[in-house]
Design a protein that fits this description.
The protein has 456 residues and is mainly β. It contains three helices and 38 strands. 12% of the residues lie in helices and 31% in strands. Strands 13, 14, 15, 16, 17, 18, 19 and 20 form an eight-stranded antiparallel sheet that branches. The protein has a seven-stranded parallel sheet with strand order 1-2-5-26-30-33-36, covered by helices on one side. The chain has a six-stranded parallel sheet with strand order 3-6-27-31-34-37, with no helix packed on it.
């Protein structure tokens, strides 16, 4: 009896393996056919003046998009496929897809990696010309910074995020108390300093000559707020910020955690870096074993990598577009003049990939890495779209967001029927610690928009 069961099990296993092998063969055949006859091909060593064939590929995805638009304008009679060869594509501006880039009828548009190759769409620039200085600090001049054309907030060395100079290097400072009320205010007026100032721990703040790029990151019960310094009162030991925190300071205990980031004298530990706006030089203390004459150092220049710009309320969707096997890397965060503060989940922080009005679009087996905010956001009016089998890591906030924090004015602008499934999201919260992995906000009625949860 046992032998018969074993034989049946063996037969079932053999049949399962045969089915699996057949599926693999079908999938591989599809890839081979796709690779053999794509409509257009892009390669880092290509030429945008060429025809975009395998033998003579385009150099940029923007040029391929123009060629696809010409096909769409002529009327699609079949699916359109663009394959990107492996290598790095330095984006001068975000890749934008609009309604004019849509598939139509039964036909779709696909931008995909060439089989077994990895194309990287990077919003960063390589920093070179490093020079050794005193105390083990290396520096390089960055064109455009001193001229006011560029300022970045992240640095990646050999594919890894490095720490923006901070103090303390480990752990946190703790607030010493609430700021005393200012005199001279109107009778009965609530003191604004309750939300914009606190008594700082001795030694944590200094009368730096320039506060412009120094941030104070404060930890609350639900969030973190990131502030710019307006003034420091050394006599009262009070720091005042340019804007308020959403969570009022009166709710804080006497030992609220915070740290100071990007002060010039905070550059004092291996792996830390500092950018001086006035001199245009970035300084860095290498980790043990790092050779700055050979290291690849990248700073992000763009604050978006991909924008899907549909207008669902006007019926102008971006429809039936698939992105498959592409890696999106190096996107920066910015800080408003009043600083940043949210009630929870870094809800106002944007993503490297922003989509509005995406209808039946897909992100499949894509990567988003080394970015300053969220990874992908299916925002207003996105319907029937998919984020599947993607890898999202080393992010400033969280991984995936669907919908908005407030109910849309009409159903057309609601994000509904989207699928977020079987993605790998990890290593987040580097800039906004309250960022969540997958996020699906309430629509304002107490009902959460439904998606399939992703794996973590």
């Amino acid at each position: 009896m046992r032998r018969a069961e074993d034989m049946n099990g063996a037969i079932a296993l053999k049949e399962s393996l045969s089915v699996f092998a057949l599926l693999v063969l079908i999938f591989a055949s599809g890839l081979s056919a796709q690779a053999a006859s794509p409509d257009f091909v892009v390669a880092p060593d290509g030429n945008d003046k060429g025809p975009g064939t395998i033998a003579r590929p385009f150099a940029t995805i923007a040029r391929a998009r123009e060629a696809v638009r010409a096909k769409i304008a002529a009327g699609l009679t079949a699916d359109v496929t663009v394959l990107l060869r492996g290598g790095t594509y330095r984006l001068a501006e975000p890749l934008v897809l609009g309604p004019e880039d849509s598939g139509s009828g039964a036909h779709s548009v696909t931008y995909a990696a060439y089989p077994k190759e990895l194309p990287v769409l990077s919003g960063g620039r390589v920093i070179s010309g490093w020079e050794a200085g005193a105390d083990g600090i290396w520096s390089a001049r960055v064109p455009g910074v001193e001229e006011g054309k560029w300022y970045f907030h992240q640095l990646f060395v050999n594919g890894e995020r490095r720490t923006r100079a901070r103090t303390p290097n480990e752990g946190f400072f703790h607030t010493a108390g609430k700021a005393p009320p200012e005199t001279g205010g109107a009778a009965g007026e609530k003191d604004s300093r309750a939300r914009t100032a606190f008594i700082y721990a001795p030694g944590s703040m200094k009368p730096w000559p320039d506060f412009e790029d120094i941030n104070v990151v404060v930890f609350h019960s639900w969030e973190t707020s990131r502030h710019r310094i307006a003034k420091i009162d050394e006599r009262e030991q009070v720091v005042t910020f340019t804007g308020p925190a959403v969570w009022p300071f009166e709710r804080w205990g006497p030992k609220q955690r915070y740290f100071v980031e990007n002060a010039p004298d905070a550059l004092d530990a291996p792996g830390e870096w500092y950018l001086d706006r006035n001199t245009g030089r970035v300084s860095y203390i290498p980790l043990p074993g790092e050779d700055m004459t050979k290291a690849e150092v990248i700073a992000p220049r763009l604050t978006r990598l991909l924008e899907v710009r549909g207008e669902a309320g006007l019926g102008a969707h971006v429809e039936k577009v698939t992105l498959r096997g592409l890696s999106f890397q190096h996107q920066d965060w910015t800080l408003p003049a009043q600083g940043h503060s949210d009630p929870q989940a870094a809800v106002s922080v944007p993503a490297a990939i922003m989509a509005d009005g995406a209808l039946n679009c897909s992100f499949e087996r894509c990567e988003v890495a080394h970015v300053g905010g969220y990874g992908i956001w299916l925002r207003r009016g996105c319907k029937g779209s998919r984020i599947v089998h993607c890898r999202i890591h080393d992010v400033g906030a969280g991984g995936v967001r669907v919908g908005e924090a407030h109910m849309a004015a009409d159903d057309a602008d609601e994000a509904t029927g989207n699928l977020v499934d079987n993605n790998h999201i990890y290593d987040g919260g580097h800039v906004y610690a309250a960022g969540v992995g997958p996020g699906c906000p309430s629509d304002g009625t107490g009902t959460t928009r439904r998606t399939v949860p992703t794996t973590m």
